[in-house]
Amino acid sequence: MIHKHGKPPEEVTSYRPISLLPVLSKMFERILLSRILPILNENQVIPKHQFGFRQQHSTIEQVHRVCEKIRSSFENKEYCSAVFLDIQAAFNKVWHKGLLYKIKAFLPHSFYLLLESYLTDRIFQVREDGELSHIHDIMAGVPQGSVLGPVLYTIYTADLPEAQGVTTATFADDTALLASNRDPTVASAILQNNLDKVTEWLQKWRIKASATISVHITFTLRKGNCEPVKMCDVTLPQCDTVRYLGMHLDKRLTWKKHIKAKRDELNMRFRNIYWLMARNSKLSIDNKLLIYRMILMTIWTYGLQLWGSACDSSLNIIQRMQNGILRTIANAPWFVTNTEIHKAMNMRTVAEEIRLTGIKYRTRLENHPNALATALTNISYIKRLKRHDIQRVGDRW
User: Fold this and answer.
1) 324, 338 Cβ separation under 8 angstroms
2) Reverse transcriptase domain: from which residue to which, for each copy (predicted)?
């Protein structure tokens, strides 16, 4: 049992179980998965808005879809009413009878019999500090750490209700619903209508979403917020920022909150390994640079394709962080410029990293198997953007 960071240690839900499954079982699952995936793809069982556990799909493309919906609302002077749902213990609470019902509907009967045997009569035992618990039956959920588990979950949630005028974005159990309109009341009404259907669907299939932890946010460049929305007669809390798939989205999509969070995380991580990268460290500069690229640089480069469009003052925050770290690694005197240090270490600046990452990302989108991701390359609403922003978009792509 692995303790979740920041959770109270006295609660059972604060621990994440790491499953140890039989190797033969994993081999069988992998063989079975190679037979199941072609059927799912041919029959288009998995909806296009589901980007989790699918080849050539990543979190960045899904966050990009959400951002493009928000930017489109900005362009049309609309209010974008959005809900980010928190699904509790999604993989652990999958209803076996409901899952088998959907397997029987989507897959041939022979697969149904195999998967019925696979899911039923499973048992588990917990080891903690060398002690073993009693053996218990598994009454719900997909096997943690299994090969088939993620695919079974996407099959179980494949019929999530959608509605016209509402953008649905899912990555595994992370679900976002967005609706836009010039009238904030109408935007929330459209969203509420779809949210009611989603709530009914969740109750039918015994999936629990927490209304108190879920977030409702209004993305707009105008004054005011959209009307509150409810789930199970509980009003969802309204916020000015939301964290979705590791990225912080504020109501005006300025990326200031996200960049500040990356700066703080980078500071904390750098302090933890400072003894390895300090001026008196015996490691070579090449090894220090390797540590920086593998541990520190990955913190701020995540989502660079999106937050790279932020204003220069925000981007300079990360650039100053990189300048300081590289000066520490090189033990450079004060009279050596940051430009010279970057060239000597063959390191790109943040602006150069944004440009190259954007070029690669566009190529990836153009060859993406999902039409929803490919459509992200068609930016046709830049008429209201300032000239500076138009140039930045051109540089990024």
Assistant:
1) no
2) 1-249
* Alpha-carbon distances, residue 16 vs 12, 91, 126, 136, 207 (angstroms): 9, 12, 11, 17, 19
In the block, residue with structure tokens 């213990």: 89
Residue 310, number of CB atoms within 10 A of its CB:
20
Rounded distance between C-alpha atoms, residue 376 and residue 374, angstroms: 5
CA dihedral 366→371→372→378, nearest 10 degrees, is 50
- What stretch of H or E contains 104? helix 96-106
**Residue in this structure with the two tokens 């035992």, named with its chain if needed:** 125
For the stretch 285-343, pLDDT in tens is 999 999 999 999 999 999 999 999 999 999 999 999 999 999 999 999 999 999 999 99
Torsion 39-41-46-51 (CA) sign: positive
**Which tokens is 54 given?**
């699918």
Cβ atoms of residues 241 and 247 within 8 Å: no
> How many residues in total does the chain contain?
397
Residue 397 pLDDT class (50, 70, 90 cuts): very low
Structure tokens at 180: 């836009």
Distance CA 24, CA 22 (A): 5
Between CA 224 and CA 251 the distance in angstroms is 11
Cα–Cα distance between 367 and 377 in angstroms, integer? 11
Q: Find residue 230's DSSP bridge partners.
A: 235
**Cα–Cα distance measured from residue 238 to residue 81, given in angstroms and rounded to the nearest whole number:** 10
Q: How far apart are CA 300 and CA 317, in angstroms?
A: 11
Give CA–CA dist 232/238, Å, rounded.
16
Neighbours of 272 (CB within 10 A): 10
pTM for the predicted model, two decimal places? 0.90
Q: Give the model confidence (pLDDT) of 61-81 as tens digits.
A: 999 999 999 999 999 999 999
